[in-house]
Fold each of these.
Amino acid sequence: MNAERLLEHYEKIADAPDAIARLRRFILDLAVRGKLVPQDPNDESAAELLKRIAAEKTRLVKAGKIRNGREGYPELAEPPFELPDNWIWVAFGEVHQLVRGVTYSKSDVAQAPSAGFIPVLRATNIGTMLTHDEPVYVKESCVSADQFLRSGDFMIALSSGSKNLVGKAAFVPDDFREAFGGFCGAIRLFDQSLQGIVRVFLQSDLYRESISEGSRGIGINNLKKETLSNLFFPLPPLAEQHRIVAKVDELMALCDRLEAARATREATRDKLAAASLARLNAPDSETFQADARFALDALPALTARADQIKQLRQTILNLAVRGKLVPQDPNDEPASELLKRIAKAHPKKIRNSRESADDVRLPSAWSLSPLGRISSFENGDRSSNYPSGSDIKAEGVPFFSTKNLSGYRLQFTNLDFITRAQFDSLRSGKLQDQDVLITLRGSVGKFGLFEACGDIKTGFINAQLLIIRCVDRATVPYLITYMRSDHFSEQIALLSSGSATPQLSAGKLAEALIPFPPLAEQHRIVAKADALMALCDRLEASLATADDTRRRLLEALLAEALEPANDCELEAAE
């Protein structure tokens, strides 16, 4: 492999999505193809090695150490790829015996250590390495000798509800003497000199892709013994096996170092970004303006992942709803005056509402108001006229559901419809421009703004939605900004009930407290928040572009190792 070229450009690709994982897979791919180390024509051929393996298998059978397994395997009609001259394709069953685990009766199994019981490992113990964690315990008298792991075995998951776990195998080191249970097996090699190359094969994409089609089941995924035995295994000469394993171990150690360096780099970046955001979120800081300028200047350089942009968005919204995003103007009419006018137009008594919150410290011209005082709520018509089944049409008046809520807006794609006559027969749940919809069941708190346009001036909502209709429509943009913040979603979580299927009542939603600025400041807040969200959009777009560039460069470098690319192709990727 052209490691020099890869390392030369590594800094450019280090942050590519799954860069290290892909590099590991690529190393293993080169290894099983015979492209990781040079061949030596003086090596004894793999065909001679296979003869010795067959002889050793015969000896073990005669000695009674293994059962007499299957004879003869299907010929490989179309090899997955061409091997070097001194390699051969063999059926995997020619080099190993599979010993299946036993499913014990419930009366013979315990979940904790007990006298007369021994630990038995499960499929969940199979990872990159085998672990001793959380075994079950089985009566020792029930466990036969061949069900104990032996040094040099590979423990393999044969059945699982997770397709990713089926076929996963881990080498059994000297310090493992436990038994293995049902849904598992032990790959027991006829010749222990094959341990290294089999370990490489069982980690490779060649192995995973070969078993994927043969391990599908209904409800549970299974890897049959025949499927495993019939896998075609690329067998190198023994001397080359040793070179391959040594090179794989060397390059995997390099990947470990690269991964550790990346983790350190990301941890440092995370700490710097978190410190910047924390200083912005610290209340009443004398250095707030300077901190804000630093954060907005520095965060583009500190953000390398989408989750960091998400944190930045929430910090912006957190500042917005606490009166720290834009300066206050003493000439603004206080929010209390606006609330008085709303109260006259919409007198509403809110049950058990808090008038203040300990975690909300607001500017003097702001007020804290329950959502039910600044808006009215409207459910859909739940009478016998509610649309169902054949009432749903391909055209007519839109019938909106949670699937239409996306990006904090009500989207006009993938719509269902009802007839105009049925719509006219409904008494409630009819949308008006600038209504806000929110889900009351399931994905509680998901919301979006309805903006009438074109041919869609109204619509009807399904049973999971509630209309929030602001008394003063000028306050809608600020309400949407507030509802995007963690402050609102945390309140929704507290006001909801139920665990399996969360639910939110209109009465409880009415109690949600809204930090309410003067109307003029609301307009400034929304304008500033929108501008900063646009900055976040650009940051996300630049991250996606950078990720794509790194991905293409990584692919070019990896392809060069298999089939040397010309310089202009690599330059294009860069």
Amino acid sequence: MYFTKSLPFILLALVTHSAWAQEYVPGEVIVKFKKEQQGKANFSSKALNFSMKVKKSWSVLNMHQLQAKVGQENVEQLVKQLQADPNVEYAEPNYIFHKQSVGIESARFDKSQAVQGFSSPVNTSFTTNYYQSDADIQTEEAWADLSASSSVMPVVAVIDTGIDYNHEVFASTGAVWSNPGEIASNGIDDDHNGYIDDVRGWNFVANNNNPMDDEDHGTHVSGIIFGLSQDIFASTLTPAKVKIMPLKFLDNTGSGATSDAVEAIYYAIENGASVINASWGGGSYSAALRDAIIEAYNNRVTFVAAAGNASNNNDSSPTYPANYSIGNLISIAATNDSDTVAGFSNFGKNTVHIASPGVSILSTLPNDSYAYASGTSMAAPLVAGIVALMEREAQTQINGYQAAQILFGQGDANVGNVNGKVNTNSRVNVYKSVHYAKTNTISATQPDEATYTTRGLASDSGGAAGGCGLVKSLSSSSAGGTDNLGRMLLMMIVLSPFAVAFVLKRRRKKEDERRTHHRYNIQSEVRISMGDKELVGSVSSISLGGVKIDTEALLEKGGIVEMNIMSPDGKERVQVLGKVVWSQERKSYGVQFCDMAETQTSSISSWTRKLVRSS
């Protein structure tokens, strides 16, 4: 291409790697109170002790964005004290996220210059007039297969830097979503959704009804989504087959706060978007953001997330929102025209689902211009565009769970070097995915819980009803297969800043003899993900029972912890999810784990055959 274009007993010795290392808005905290506090006029007394100003509230969720008064802006301390309040479900900093583009890499073209710049494709085994990428994703074949009309007009919410809604591509085709319940410029919230004159979306940065792009990123992303439905470089464009809902939460530097992202997601859900594109991310686990995506799941909305551009393995170095284990979320790696995973792209056999072209993608920029850009920011909207076309051809909204099943099943497997880099070992195929949706009856069902076993892979979650779960109960009941996505789940606790020791208390021999599962000696590595911290230690014993811990850390009941346990030979890692509980009988904390998938149980059982049984 033209380049300018119930489980292990473990003994752990742990140290904290990093605490509060992530970016957040100074002096701001997001707090959610427990269900029994919902509807009460006053917040808990401990929360009010700080005289914090309520900047924003999501009353249905019992969630609030608080701002500390001058002189009390120590976010770490505020979070610790709020989290210690028994009325608080979770408290966290208002984390900052960033766009996932490596930048505009070419001069800006007008349409004629852009088309003249095209060169022969890298993959010379096929020809294409789909100018946005030379990867053989069969976009033109999908166009030829599209129905002349559809009863469904999919709406893709682009939660980003905004969009140049006056751009020739969008303005001439009617591509930008229009709020049917709002009358422009009358100063009235006609549809009573809480936003005045939101005729084309919302700007959550400036808190106004003008989501104009002031950074380029959102317009480029939107052009990729729209370019999946027709040739945006054609001399004559056809009326839009999909709509773009511009929701600006990233500012003119490409950065935005969790609180604005959360509000944008709820806006998208409530105003009819069926697909959300998130070409942004960061290293901080936000329970509030996870709550919002689960709400999208419950409303059958597909959430497409960029895997990130740090060349990292997301299995061990998570980025969010891409690493959340939620059934409607599809995490995307970037590949080039030859289906090679881009050097900048994050990857992950367990946590990144599928690959998509994201190198030198030609798309729209503000002021009727065009340019090439690269990033998982460019790979994700291509997938969002595919899902939108799938819905158009199926003539129904396809929930995120089903959209993922189709995309993963209809991708091109083992192309380039994607094998082992993404969970499906596949790169997306536009034609096969859209044609499948067009010619098959798509099930409207999805598991009742947002985190569940799915996708025919090994499960990382599960558990009895009411067991493991911080925001929602996490259940293993599912209509699908299993899912070992290995996603990071938040444990809303605050550790003391010093080293923490987890000590296994030995039971009396008589009690040991009554154990259902024998304990075995093992010398191996374990990593525990707890909020912003990753704790690394060693495993000294293991069984299929459970884990009891003693620690000076502040362990809040109900927290979620994920352990990654290395096999004795170092060749295999098993991920185990559990809930921190307090044993009144033993006067100590422990981890009550969710049910393991069969693959996890089999792995640990295979290890123990070669281990020495503990006394």
Amino acid sequence: MLRSICRFSRFGSGALIFLAITTLAHIAVAAESSSTKEARNESEKQLREDVKKLAADDWEGRGLATQGINKAADFLAAEFKRLGYNTELFDGTPFQKFSVTVSNKLGKPERNVLTFEPTEKTNADGKSLEKKTQTNMPLLLGRGFTPLSIGGSGKVDLPIAFVGYGISSKDDKYDDYAGIDVKGKAVIILRHEPQQKNPHSPFDGDKDSMHAPLVRKVSNAYQHGAAAVLFVTDEVEIRGKVAAQRKRWQDTLEKAKTEFDALAKVPKDDLEALDEERLRLLRVIEQLKTQGADLGKEFDPLLPFERGEGSDARRMPVVHVRRIMVDQLFKASGHPSLSKLETEIDEDLKPRSFEIKGWRLQGEVHVERIEAEVKNVVAVMEGSGPLADETIVIGAHYDHLGRGEEGTLLAGSKEIHNGADDNASGTAVLLDVARRLAGKKLPRRIVLIAFTGEERGLLGSGHYIHNALFPLSKTVAMLNMDMVGRLKNDELIVYGTGTAKEFDALVTKINGRDPFHFTIKREPGGFGPSDHASFYAAKIPVFHFFTGLHNDYHRPSDDIDKLNIEGMRRIGEFVTEFALDIANEPKPPEYAQVGREMFGRGGSEKKGARPYFGSIPDLGSRDEGYALQGVAKDGPADKGGLQAGDIIIGLAENKIGNLDDFDSALRKFKGGDTVEITVKRAGEEKKFKVTLDPPKG
């Protein structure tokens, strides 16, 4: 290169100096460009390695009930420590531990014993039956009844009532609970709905309506004060199964006849063809045997223990009972059969509910809750100077759905849900940001948190909020990354642009820098289906970075081959710029509350035909009732006086035990209705009037 400079010495010293300066500048730019490219390549290589580990089959989808999530936690802890962050925070570890219920299983057989027990010799009219002898009716586990995981445990000695299909619907002018008091009683409820085969039925014709799911029926029973639920399968369901089984058997019988005819037509000297046809016929005969045996089986099978789902398991027992046992009870107490009652309800759509006098449900139901210790992984880089006691949290959740845990959108799947985008991508980018910030001396403290339990309802971030390592009053911002692995056409969604007065302008400023220039969709609200919502409910400004939903969401197909690693690297650079700008700004961001927000996926404010209430659930709460993490500004709950920390235990005349009860009760009203809300606040019951808004969306 020096040889090239000397070649132009004839142009004079000035020209030579100019040329030298220009050439050296080009050399510096080339070196910088080469260095930048190398750094980006190294960043992408590291991101790819990190996400490959996190989304590996060996780590079992990072489900709360797997060993894989512990492998992920150990990996993150080691990386934070290697980068120089302080990880000796909780008894010398980075692990903020807490317990969650990860699954339920059927309890001990000796603790699952139920009996229909006569208490006096009376019939349905209360008249004496002294000349008749009544005996108890044991409901044998696995033969007469089975507990359902949706319910709870406990000893029972309860009066009994039949409440038809267990439906209360103002819109359809049908209420199985009208005129009957079921408080403190065990209620017998038919599955499904009246007029199931009638396309003109008010209950969504011949399709299941919102009243059909077990969780809805249990919620309605709880709201009316029931102490236990006994489900019984309706006759329409049983007849349909019998018909389907008989048709399968008849179809196979026709197939067998066809194979017999085919065998008869095979030439006797064609031994190979004879053997092939013989084998085909034998396979069909085996099918006939199996299906014939099925025809002789009980066509009222007990539901599996795992049947039923909801936002939370009940404390009251919920079981499934065979029809024959209920029919025996009805006959002994002088009531019509289930079949007759179903027919009558179908004919006129009028409830046929009644108390079963002279009988009680006695015994015990035992459902075992399987607890697991889970942990947030936390690392700290202390600030320096007068603002060192102020904190910026940067986080991403590292848990996912394991082998098809609660939340999977592939029903019944036991495949590993690797969750490459959700949220191995955000976790890998969290590590990328940690590398970019490592060793810097910033005015404010940086706290990195890999949250657990997000998929179960923001459990990890909720736990941190209730057990913060540093004062929340001095936590000036939270930056969250969830599903940032599918950047397409440079379109990036940024939530929280309205949660601080400075944030919208900050997005514009940082995105205007090279090399960003994303096409940004701004969402001003701070509530949403990820961990930033827990912080915003605590009045902390938030940003949440997200590249959008896709068809692989919460399915086993969310794998690493579909990730945009370059996009993840750019998002890591982007988030780092936000952290640096907020850390170096003399004044902290000024919190702002955004009005009329919806919580979104996993929360209470779902779109639909129910009125808008404006509440944000605290899904990590274990208190009985519907706990509030916050309320939307200027929403009905806010205007009515409700606030974060309240636990709703009543809505009008409805008892509220969890989120499902709240959702179910709210659907009984419409926009414009004013309802009385009963809450527990700091241990005291208080009542508020809330005027509901029309449904959103």
Amino acid sequence: MSAQRRVACLLAPDFLVQAERRAHPELAGRPFVVATGDDGRAEIVAVSEAATRAGVRAAQTVARARAACAGLVVRPASAALEQSARQSLLDAALALAPRAELAPREAPPFAAEAAVFVDATGTATLYASENGFASALVARAGALGLAGFVGVASSRFAARGVARRLAAAARGAAHAEARASGFLALRPDEEARAIAALPVDLLAPSDALAQRLTRLGIRRVGDLLRLPRRALAQRLGPEARALAARARGEHDEPPLPAPRDARLEEACDLEAPIDRLEPLRFALRGLAARLAERLAVRGLATRRLELALALEGRARDARRIGLAAPTLDVRVWMRVLAGELEASPPRAPVLAVALATEGEAVRRDQLDLFRPRGPDPSALDATLAELEALCGRERVGAPRVADVHRPDAWALAPFAPRAAEARAAGGPVDTARIGDERGTDARPPLAAVRALRPPVPARVRVDAGAPVAVASAVTSGEVVHASGPWRSTGGWWSEGERYALDHYDVQVSDGVVARLCFDWTARRWSVDGVYD
């Protein structure tokens, strides 16, 4: 039998105020308002707590609000900031659950709030309880600069009703301590009683229906549910019947959807046109910092940035900038963005800025039991990319044996730890080989030749076709024992690539065992290896 469906609602009240404070942290604690404009006749649509204590109210004009509060800060309403903040609310939910969706905007008096519904089914096993999950959800929203309240119940309606009640209680509290409990999970057996105690205004009825309910003395949801169903529809209309059905849990709610993509965007409207790069970089830094916070909350990184600039004259400048490796380092982002803007400045003053990206999972590396810990995969990718930029892509990699007969030939392959290569190929990691590399194998060690690159020039005395004496910077003396020659030839079809080499393994009277090489094309001797 499947588990009963549980839904959490993360509710952020006074959302326009929170969106401005998230984009402008310097406004914290200061009296400010969000208005339809910045002139004296503009209407105020949202008021901060400090401005409310100073006597400023919504629907006032800016001139009247400034008369009540001399130090009032007026911020024009920005649809871009509000949309970015709504998406941040969704990111906080997706950081803890695989399914979530933003709630549609409500009509007054709840038009100033934003909400996201989260699939909370089975979260009690991961967070010890549903209250633990709700607490983590509040904390994730707070990490993105959004204060929220969470209600958990069996339906969207009940969860949002609980969250609205918590927000209303916190708004009316006289002390900040009363806001500590910003979450509440209702048990299925107590949902009916809790919903019946909610104010009927939390159902968000239309103005006409709200007036009728007030005249009838219906102030709680329980009062509405006690009315006969047939008489309810006949006297108050189908809207009242639909509200009562939602309160009873009879409304069939579709399951929460999984996110379609991992695209994230931060945007802002500039207060004045910007025609210089320095203030533009300042605005971009704030967008990049907020975008990185959202990626970090969801455990994602990015290797691509999309920059969109709205210019004067209704022009638009869109750019796509690639990064060497997935990263969350804002400093790297800013260096890349600054380089792009300096190489190709905007053609006209900038009015608005948007920075978007598609998040991708950060690459992880499973540590081996028999190896020391290696570099972090993301840091390794960034280091390799910087080396390729400095030295060239063809000069960076891991050495590999070339598929040719020339003894000193070698090749480069993309660098990756050996264990990671085995996992990528789908095969098991050869722990015996790892143990052999660490010297834990019980087999006797074999002599290893240490190649000298470049080979050391040598003078060799030959008798009867075999070396009998060597003089070089590596070894000098009479040859005690010699083996060889071993001849290798190839590349005869090319003047620059042909080779003909004779190799000898010799033991010299000074105790060194070396490998001699005679190059027939260049007619010279060299020491190209020493046995350890």
